[in-house]
Amino acid sequence: MAGILGVGSGIDIDSIVTALVNAEKAPKTLQLDRLEKVTTSRFSALGTLKGSLSSLQATIQGLSKASVFETRTASSSSSSVLTAKAAASADAGKYSMQVQQLASSSKVALQSVSSTSGTTFNSGKLTISAGSSSIEVDVTAANNTLSGLRDSINEEGKSAGISATIVTDASGSRLVLSSNKTGAGNDITVAATQDGVTTGTVALTTQSFQPSASLQLPSFAAGATSTFKAGALEITAGSVSLNVAVNDGDSMEAIRDAINTAGSGQGVSATIETDSSGARLVLSSTNGTALEVSASSTGGATGTNELTSLNPASGVVATSSGPNSTTGAGGVISKAQSAILYVDGLQVTSDSNTVTTAIDGLTLNLVSAQSSADLLAGKTVDVTVGVDKGTVKSNVQKFVDAYNSLISTVGQLSAVVPVTDGTPVTGPLVGDVTVRGLMSGIRGELVKMTGPDGARALAELGITTQKDGTLKIDDTTLSAALDSNFEGVAEYFSGSNGLMTRLESNVSNYLKSDGVLDQRTKSLSGTLANIDDQREALDMRIEKVQARLVAQYSAMDSLVARLQKTSESLTSQLASLPGFVKKD
């Protein structure tokens, strides 16, 4: 408009129109600005309230779950011997345990061969077994070296847990086989057969291996006076079980012969060894590294010794010979054995060092065996199973913290703060009906008396309300309640009509989809959208007002311009009339 309007009249039409337009627009703009500020402030405040309430809901849900009160703790008095973990099904109690031996896997060394590069094996097949796991390795001209066998065993043994390495000692180089299967009966055995297709420098059958075991029985004075009363010997060698009858008055030689007769063809035999301490029976087995004997007496008048005196002394177990670095013979490096532990004096055998079947709901992880001295002295490791009070207390504290945070948030959002000029500053949700309804509902649930005796109210659990409306926990009172009435506390919090169940129902009405807060925020979003529409409508109306004023003032300016021209024309005509005297 500048430079166009006011040419005829000289009036600053631009300024006049702008002033009139602003005067027309200002009241409505002020109204919309004020409404938008209040609405935005409430929208943001409801978001803050929703966030604080969501945090409270999370802690409510944590305490409302029965599983929180079903969790069990398990502690060991010696974690260097064993550790424990309890499931919810474990019964609270204390158990005394001893760990006699750990479960272990088998590791053996095969017969050594010359370590020269030209050493090869006859072709054929190796069958390597570890308990129920077994692999077959075909030996051909392509892999009949020591390193070739190692690689083939490792490839075939991946799924069976069987692996091989090469170790070189004074006798030469040899294969060392390992298995990852623990437990008695999982000893490594190797069967070798030749097919005559390829001839090497070493027979493949030299790599056959059958672990053996020997067991020394107590010694007795040598001579005919060492006779035994009647009874029976129960001999277990791997999968072989023998029952050897002993007659009253049998000598050690007679018992040896009876064992050899019963064990003939079954890999069990007996010999007599004599040294400075006397004579003793030595049992041998080719059925693996497990070999045990149990003697029972039935009595008699002829024998000089009870047959039970043949039972091995405490701590004496079967042994297996290891590899020999001088002769190159193969041997057992470590035998497969089961874990043996005692639970309250009862023997438990496990193929794994992770024992899950000894006590219902309790997992025992065996770390190390106790020393013979500790076992002999009766030293035990105590495992204590109890309810998980620590987790419950932690969840109660989280609930109290979240509730107090909600109280603080509500206080800030609905506060009225007086100022010096007498005009108070109010929070965005001051007097808000939604906030009043929410807090009234929550407080109403907190003061209800429910639950069993001793746990009918928060105050009985040491949780009290302070002057500012926040909650405070007395740890001593809460601990005492958990110690004396744990089930009652669980029912008060998480029962079908428990505090957390009721609070969850109350709070979810505000937080759920299309709940109270969701509806409020949608309403406020609608208000903000309507404000935008009103601003757009106002701008369109003001544009029309401005156009109308411009048109009116432009018309006025044109009229004034025409009138001025008419005035000038009349003045000129009058001046030209005869007798007109122009006054200076």
Explain what the structure shows.
This protein has 584 residues and is α+β, with helices and mostly antiparallel strands. It has 4 domains: 50-69 and 390-511; 72-103 and 338-387, no CATH class; 105-207, Sandwich (Immunoglobulin-like), CATH 2.60.40; 213-319, 2-Layer Sandwich (Alpha-Beta Plaits). The chain is 37% helix and 27% strand. It has 11 helices and 27 strands. The protein has helices at residues 13-64, 66-70, 146-156, 252-263, 372-376, 389-413, 433-446, 475-484, 486-494, 499-511, 516-575; strands at 72-76, 82-86, 93-101, 105-109, 124-130, 133-139, 162-169, 172-182, 188-194, 213-220, 227-228, 230-237, 240-246, 250-251, 268-275, 278-285, 291-299, 331-334, 339-343, 346-350, 354-359, 362-366, 381-387, 416-417, 425-426, 463-465, 471-473. A 5-stranded antiparallel β-sheet has the order 1-23-3-19-20, with no helix packed on it. A 4-stranded antiparallel β-sheet has the order 7-8-4-18. Helix 1 packs antiparallel against helix 10 (499-511). The longest helix has 60 residues, at 516-575. It is elongated. The protein starts with 12 loop residues before the first helix and ends in a 9-residue tail after the last helix. The model is unreliable at 1-5 (pLDDT under 50).
